[in-house]
Automatic annotation (TrEMBL):
Keywords: Ion transport, Membrane, Sodium, Sodium transport, Transmembrane, Transmembrane helix, Transport. GO terms for molecular function: D-glucose:sodium symporter activity. It is found in: Membrane. It is a multi-pass membrane protein. Coiled coil: none annotated. The gene is yidK_1. Transmembrane segments: none annotated. Belongs to the sodium:solute symporter (SSF) (TC 2.A.21) family. The lineage of its organism: Bacteria, Pseudomonadati, Pseudomonadota, Gammaproteobacteria, Enterobacterales. This is Putative symporter YidK. InterPro entries: Na/Glc_symporter_sf, Na/solute_symporter. It comes from the Bacteria. It comes from Citrobacter koseri.
Length: 236
């Protein structure tokens, strides 16, 4: 089962990487007139190259000083922090231009790799992520002051999807929150903490929320207006 889970996750990663390369890079930057068959071929070749590189790099994971999980988190930090910085700054500062996002993306990657891998500082990689975040924020603010957008960015809804909020979203969020608290408090008992009462309370609230959501869903389905065939023909 473990081997199957690993293979499944690896296949999903290859499919995602192939799609991103073929649609996001190849068709936009290399061949804008590429046919769907050509994109599939390019995606397969790129996926094969990534798979070969992954197989060659895999044995070196054994030399990761803090284990595979920590090593993967460090690698994810190369692009996670720049992306998060761009999204946050875009939300709160609508006059920051696209140039700032591009500079922050490149600078964030370079600064993180330099501080965490090339220059040997005795810092935990989470502190490096925090430093990279601060650097990106300062750089984006400076670019926004020097060369701001002519008009603030405004998000325009294309109305392609119904964005009407679910009426029970807040209640469901409470259930998810207490379910998470129940999991953590339940596991904390194995560490010697007396959290049994918190676990029982959290799961009781979660169960109550689930029952309410089931009842609300049942009530919504059965209270929907019934349209008869004759009425529909008359309206038509």
């Amino acid at each position: 089962m473990l081997f199957g889970a690993i293979i499944s996750a690896f296949c999903g990663f290859l499919n995602s990487a192939s799609t991103l390369f073929s649609l996001g890079i190849y068709r936009r930057l290399i061949n804008e007139q590429a046919s769907p068959d050509k994109l599939v071929t390019v995606g397969r070749r790129f996926g094969f190259i990534v798979a070969v590189i992954s197989v060659l790099v895999a044995p070196w994971i054994a030399y990761a000083p803090q284990g595979l999980y920590s090593w993967m988190k460090q690698l994810n930090g190369i692009y996670n922090v720049p992306l998060v910085t761009i999204v946050i700054m875009g939300f709160f500062f609508p006059r920051i231009p696209a140039l700032a996002a591009k500079v922050a993306m490149g600078l964030g990657i370079v600064s993180y790799i330099t501080i965490n891998y090339l220059v040997k500082f005795d810092f935990h990689f989470l502190y490096v992520l925090a430093c990279t975040f601060c650097i990106n924020v300062v750089v984006m603010l400076l670019i926004g002051v020097i060369k701001p957008r002519a008009t603030p960015f405004k998000f325009h809804d294309a109305f392609a999807v119904d964005m009407k909020p679910w009426k029970n979203v807040k209640i469901a969020a409470v259930g998810v929150l207490f379910a998470m608290i129940g999991v953590y408090s339940g596991l904390a008992q194995f560490g010697g903490y007396q959290t049994r009462w918190l676990t029982i309370l959290s799961y009781a609230i979660t169960a109550a929320v689930v029952v309410y959501l089931i009842y609300s869903s049942w009530q919504t389905r059965h209270s929907a207006p019934v349209v008869y065939v004759s009425d529909a023909k008359d309206k038509a």
